[in-house]
Design a protein that fits this description.
This protein is an all-alpha fold. The chain is 56% helix and 3% strand. The chain contains 16 helices and 3 strands. It has a 3-stranded antiparallel beta sheet with strand order 1-2-3. A hairpin with a 2-residue loop joins β2 and β3. It is globular. The structure holds acetyl coenzyme *A and oxaloacetate ion. The site of oxaloacetate ion has 6 residues, from loops.
Length: 373
């Protein structure tokens, strides 16, 4: 048996959702550079789910459906109040809340495409409410109900702070959502597809995907980047910190990628936003530290930054708590997970690879009394 560690380079499915070819990322054939500058996140959701950009009417309908489905069942909100709130990571809370949501959806186990699409709307609509509600409850604040007159990006920031966000914050957050929406067969998307390929339900697929995104080698890296910036503290400490880590063969979070070689095309957009926003908020040192880290890591290891590197200082500049960075990734990526889940159902086959066994050879069972102490 030939083992490909980490399934590197293995092509496991066909997909018409997003592609990474020669370091260019496209959603349904639209270059991410084009979408990052021009698209709203709502348009991207529609694009991923329908493989075409919406007409004005189609976009209005989707926006309306998302707004109408944003509220959470009271039971989910009450459940947050039962957690050991100061010890729970918001990704754990999100994972549990999505699983719980499934219990209050009468269509949870329905498998027809129309029911699955309705569940996709509900999940996409409710994830921002889950994240912001949890974030407020743990601070002893009342949840802020979603509004139907705000864009998806604006509504998230509004529900988080209780105040209408500035246009520049809405623009930055919308762009971040667009940039994170889908990424071919990354670990969390693959997890979602493996889960639903058993013909399990959409809620199970999304719960599994959230679990996979949480790890610091994947979506959890954005929070880890912010932790590193906070630990470093100032630009003059960057060199010694980074060089010591590299000498100790430790990873620098936010660098490297399984697929990109020359660089992650999303990072440059986040870098521009980071410079702009850190200057506006009077915290330019996070951007300065980041560029210094980038110079060292690319110079020494030839590893370019990935999407998680500059998103950290962008979210910090928007006043977002650091442990909400990965849940925000999920608020965007759920659009891609849902697109992949629906695509998997359309042409399903169980995903079941093999393992090359390396344990002991045949053994004979010995009763416990004869095995010694
Ligand atoms: C949204 C996302 O998921 S983007 C990725 C987010 N994750 C991170 O930023 C975490 C840091 N980066 C990494 O751990 C890796 O680059 C990954 C997980 C993204 C990709 O992993 P893989 O393709 O399996 O590469 P792997 O971990 O085998 O690294 C290959 C070599 O580059 C080195 N390397 C890779 N990333 C880094 C890094 N961030 N810092 C230092 N060295 C690194 C490894 O140590 C290894 O060196 P070696 O061959 O001398 O042992
Ligand atoms: O594709 C990957 O391996 C990780 C990634 O960048 C993403 O999920 O956005």
């Amino acid at each position: 048996m030939t083992v490909t560690r980490g399934l590197e380079g293995v092509v496991a499915t066909t997909s018409s959702i997003s592609s990474i070819i020669d370091d260019t990322l496209t959603y349904v054939g639209y270059d991410i550079d084009d979408l990052a500058v021009n698209a709203t996140f709502e348009e991207v959701i529609y694009l991923l789910w329908h493989r075409k950009l919406p007409t004005k009417l189609e976009l209005e309908e989707l926006t309306k459906q998302l707004a109408e489905n944003a509220e959470l069942p009271k039971e989910v909100i009450d459940h947050f109040k039962m957690y050991p709130i100061d010890k729970v990571h918001p990704m754990g809370a999100l994972r549990s809340a999505v699983s719980l949501l499934g219990l209050y959806d009468e269509e949870a186990d329905a498998m027809d495409p129309e029911a699955n699409y309705r569940k996709a709307i509900r999940l996409q609509a409710k994830l921002p409410t889950i994240v912001t509600t949890f974030a407020r409850i743990r601070k002893g604040l009342e949840p802020v109900a979603p509004r139907t007159d705000l864009s998806f990006a604006a509504n998230f920031l509004y529900m988080l702070s209780g105040q209408e966000p500035e246009p520049i914050a809405i623009e930055a957050f919308n762009k971040a959502l667009v940039l994170h929406a889908d990424h071919e067969l990354n670990a969390s998307t693959f997890t979602a597809r493996v889960c639903v390929a058993t013909l399990s339900d959409v809620y199970s697929g999304i719960t599994a995907a959230i679990g996979a995104l949480k790890g610091p080698l994947h979506g959890g890296a954005n929070e880890a980047v912010m932790k590193m910036l906070t630990e470093i503290g100032s630009v003059d400490q960057v060199d010694s910190y980074v060089r010591e880590k590299l000498e100790n063969k430790e990873k620098i979070m936010g660098f490297g990628h399984r697929v990109y070689r020359k660089g992650d095309p999303r990072a440059k957009h986040l870098k521009v936003m980071s410079e702009k926003l850190t200057n506006l908020t009077g915290k330019p040192e996070y951007y300065e530290m980041s560029t210094r880290i980038e110079n060292i890591v690319t110079g020494e290891k030839n590893l370019p930054p990935n999407v998680d590197f500059y998103s950290a200082s962008v979210y910090d500049s928007l006043g977002i708590d650091h442990d909400l960075f990965t849940p925000i990734f999920a608020v965007s990526r759920v659009s891609g997970w849902l697109a992949h889940i629906l695509e998997q159902y359309e042409n399903n086959r169980l995903i079941r690879p093999r393992a090359d066994y390396t344990g002991p050879g045949m053994q004979k069972y010995i009763p416990v009394e004869q095995r010694g102490l």
